[in-house]
User: Which sequence fits this backbone?
């Protein structure tokens, strides 16, 4: 059964952050907290408002792709760690915990100036 365009919502935006914190980073807890809050605030400011709370609908599912852009590539597990605060804020904006089974999270990375690109597809 195919979905109509009214049943699918797509968004794309970028967040101008470095996303360099990894589990291997040796940061003071206060510095880490500051970086996480900064990243989450940038997502909050740039997240398209018409999508806020959209995952609260009972049959909604989402595929979210996070692409980290930086001067060099990271190991795949470090990419996920570096994007954790961004993932958490996207899930909060959409209305469900990031561990909910209705989300599919995809991660990519490429070389370039620091930035994180976010693309999402929500199906109802």
Assistant:
């Amino acid at each position: 059964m195919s979905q109509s365009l009214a049943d699918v919502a797509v968004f794309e935006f970028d967040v101008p952050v470095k996303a360099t914190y990894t589990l291997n980073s040796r940061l003071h807890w206060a510095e880490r907290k500051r970086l996480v809050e900064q990243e989450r605030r940038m997502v909050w400011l740039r997240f398209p408002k018409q999508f806020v709370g959209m995952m609260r609908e009972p049959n909604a599912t989402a595929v979210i792709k996070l692409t980290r852009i930086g001067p060099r590539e990271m190991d795949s597990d470090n990419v996920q760690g570096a994007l954790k605060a961004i993932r958490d804020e996207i899930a909060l904006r959409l209305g469900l915990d990031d561990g909910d089974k209705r989300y599919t999270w995809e991660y990519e990375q490429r070389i370039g100036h620091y930035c994180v690109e976010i693309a999402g597809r929500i199906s109802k």
About this structure: The chain has three helices and four strands. The longest helix spans residues 29-46. The two ends are 13 Å apart (CA to CA).
